Amino acid sequence: MWSRSLVIIAVLFIFVSCSTKKKIAKVDYTPLEIPTIDKKDSRTEIAQKFLLSNLEFTTFSGKAKSKISIGKSSQDATVNIRIEKDKKIWISITALLGLEVGRVLITPDSVQILNKFQGEYIGKPFSYLYQYASEDLTFANVQDLLLANFSTNLLNAHNFEVDLKSIPIQLRGQKNELSYLYLVNQQNKLDSFSLEQAAKGQKLEANYASYSNNGGMLFPMALELLISGGDTSISANFNYSRVSFNEAVEMPFTISNKYKVIN
Fold first, then answer.
1. Tens of pLDDT, residues 197-224
2. 193-202: b or e for each residue (b if 16 or more CB lie within 10 Å)?
3. Contact 147, 55 (CB under 8 A)
4. Residue 13: closest CA among 202, 183, 225
5. Which residues, other chains included, contact 48 with Cβ-Cβ below 8 Å and sequence gap of 6+?
6. Under DSSP, is residue 97 helix (H, G, I), strand (E, B) or coil?
7. DSSP of 59-80
8. Residue 59 belongs to a domain with what CATH number?
9. Which domain does 8 fall in, by range?
10. pTM to 2 decimal places
11. How many domains in the chain?
């Protein structure tokens, strides 16, 4: 279970999908100024207003209780996630009794997985993940998914339609092979985000809830991921107990000789 979970954690945020499921995030903090989307706005103006709602940060650190389900099997874990903006995403997975079973390190150039439970190491270029997803997806997309941000490379394509009458607002579009859908609440924050790559039959949906003010950052303390592709069915829930922004973070990732390299 842990061997599969570690690999899936690395590609969890790379699978792609669509969904019509709607979840309304509970927001207990209202920003001082929320750009209003008007029906007369151009696509460029709409994109700019939504992107202004993204979190501005240098580092992120969060600790969450998680349940990862693969098919009929499930496992509880504690997950620590640390991000250095546009540079590194570091994930540590701890099982019951405080036993760390693995670490994942993702950069714009590489993906490294340390399976401490079975003494195995996988190191690949970022392009390795394209076998699970479109080459249109980037490191920034993974980062945005974790932080409930709009993705610049999707909105800047301006190939989208917005339904301002729906609650939440629906923004759907296409970028090459990817179809995407954002559901946006009244604070211009995401209720959900979904992607689909029909050619590969891959689907992902991210639902965000329990927004709270963390040092001036409006952040969802609950994240649910639903993934399917081929014969794979995965769900993962993350309920944060602690998050912080713009503080020094450490991302230890040491590979000793005892680990077997998996190609």
1. 877 777 889 999 999 998 888 999 999 9
2. bbbbbeebeb
3. yes
4. 225
5. none
6. helix
7. EEEEEEEEEEEETTEEEEEEEE
8. 2.50.20.10
9. 2-261
10. 0.84
11. 1
